[in-house]
Here is the input.
Amino acid sequence: MRSLFYFLLSWPLRLLVRCKIVPDNAENPQDLSDCKSTFYIVRHRSASDLIALQMACKKQGLPDPLENVEVDGKSFRRCLCLEQPSSIFPWVKKRETKALEQGLVLLKHHEKNPDAQLKLVPANILWGRVPTKENKADVGMVLADDRSPNFLRKFWIVLFLGRDTLVRFSTAVSFREMTDNQGANEVSARKLMRVARFHFHRQTVAATGPRLMDQQQKFTALFATPAIKRLIKEEAKSKGVSEAEIKKQALAIMKEIAADYRNTTIRLGERILSWLWNRLYDGIEVRHADRLRKLSQDGHEIIYVPCHRSHMDYLLLTYVIYQQGLVTPRIAAGINLNFWPAGPIFRKAGAFFIRRSFAGNRLYSTIFREYLGLLFNRGYAVKYYTEGGRSRTGRLLQPKTGMLAMTIQSMLKGLDRPLTLVPVYLGYEHVMEVASYHKELKGSSKQKESVFGVVKAIRKLRNYGKGFVNFGEPININEFLNNQVPDWKDSIDPIEPPKPQWLTPAVNVMANQVMMEINKAVALNSVTLSALILLTANNNSLTRKELEQQLDFFLDLQRKAPFSADMFIPEESGAELVDSLIKLNKVDVEDDDMGQIISLTGQAVLEMGYYRNNILHAFMLPSVVCRLLKTYDKLSTEEITAKTLQLTQLIKAELFLWFNDEDVVEQVGKVLSILAEQGIVKHSKADYWSINEECQDAHKINLLSQCISETVQRYTIVSKLIKQLAPVSRAALENDATTLAKRMSQLHNINAPEFINKKSQAAIVNALREYGYIASDDSGCFIANESLNDLEETITHLIEPEVLQSILHS
Here is the structure.
């Protein structure tokens, strides 16, 4: 009779329910496929829940949850349900389920049978993923806000929210381990039920978020903060106006900033974006999302800090987070995006808007800081870009530390939950704004975002290849501060925390660590790798066979000596990557009787420079090693390591390399070993390394050795000017370096925008000063130290003779 009921009910539910499945469990589904050893535990004893679970299990290849399992000759339901549904009559007391009783029986079964290996898989079914609300005025929220709804309420939940159902499988619990460690008694069984309830509660909060505040509640909470109350009085007194007038200005600022999150907008957006990604991309590669789920399960408040490549970042990352079964974050968006109709839509999707500058506006800066603190205090996930704006060159920008500083200041109010930064690398095989970036770098004014720009972009929708979202190593802010500033908690003040002296130095270190973690999570792809190779080739051209060989060589190097453990390396061969590159129309392909020639011409050279810069940092160390081997007839391991350390130390800050000295030594050893395995280099008994000219593959390192060229040239320009002009002011040095770089760019056809960028020259000056190659005299002007001669000896050997002559004689 029970089977017939579920069979009949499953037919309408198949039409009403669509499950999004998030398999948190580390096990392979095949490991749980044994129908005699797998049980499930769910929150509610609900027919609709069990049928939705059955649909999800069928997709995952897991045992049917509606079947019975025989244990010691007795038949048990495969699903343990923690709660019975509520009665439609409020005076009727809810009955207990048999979950505790069955759990105890299964534990005792393991006590009697040493070979028993039953597993319990927690399965959380969430209908609609609707957050609860302080003021329950939303129908969806009223429906979903019930721990164990009765059958009548559940009918409406399935009807309205069934198409947005989340089923989340967690790692299986071993009854064997629990019996061995906790015993097989009622206390252990109750502990199992209690842990399961808490586990499901944490997962539900992670998926739906904390209770929502409406706009008026937010504004009331902000006006009640001591900082804003005090500032309103001070502003009224200093400006000679009433407090009511200042409050009116403050309210206008709050309305300009605040998000107005609506779950219906997120659900509709998820459907639209699913269609859009299928139209735009061949797929989205997501890596290390398990880190997010673990953090949320452990009660951390997550702050996403991605790199910023494109306006598409806002949509892509939010979509991926939602697909991973987590609540979407509140997003810090530039005020330039607050135009109709995008602004109101973004605001309802969780965006809060930030002005480019807070300078001179105490009221705005205080309200924004307190608003950010309110989000943290209420437990909302947040996302902001430490770069401030989109990178026009493809490299990570130097971080802006304002948001990070405000984050730490929020902790100084005594925030009692762990705040954790999650660096995110976002990569694309096509960025729609690249052409406009180059116009801006050449001096064109930035185009203002508008509805017409959106319509124009939609009309140009085409295949953009793949998107990449790679979540880096999380940074627990509490632990970070404990290491950097052991007594930081002494500065905690719930009413009005001070701005301690340690704040700025600590924030600078943390910002740099965030950028390094983003770069560690770099994603290689067909476009970025091909750009790196073709832009170093003569005439930016290679035969197809040569390009395939170079791609295989670059990939092999990263697979055997990866830049970091978090990076994404494609599994495809060089030939498959070339096919993808051609499909994306990124290169010119010319056929002749001997095969294909693949080249970059015109605008493609400029655009591909952007994609090269996305991954250039991952190849800098092996490029230095190869350049040294190409330059010198022979070098000892010690000499190669010393020179590599010298150069990587300088470019570390500019490219956010994560290596310390020990890592550099280890990486150099790995690169040399790989080259030796392939016969490209040889190692003498006297510990000297040299290129094996007899090896047919020795030419493979030529292009890799060129990746460092432009960086070496820029350092040569700056060091030459310092020695020639010293003492020289910072402004004069940076201006002259930029002028000379532009001259070299024209003389030697160097098309990299960062080569002639004044900020790039400033980064070089900072690095030379930090590592003691230059110093400041009494007037603050730069002079050369003796160690600069050592550096010059290294870099002038690595630079092409014709370029070196142009620099020295300019």
The domain at 709-808 is CATH 1.10.10 (Arc Repressor Mutant, subunit A). Residues 137-145 have pLDDT under 50 and may be disordered. The chain has 33 helices and 24 strands.
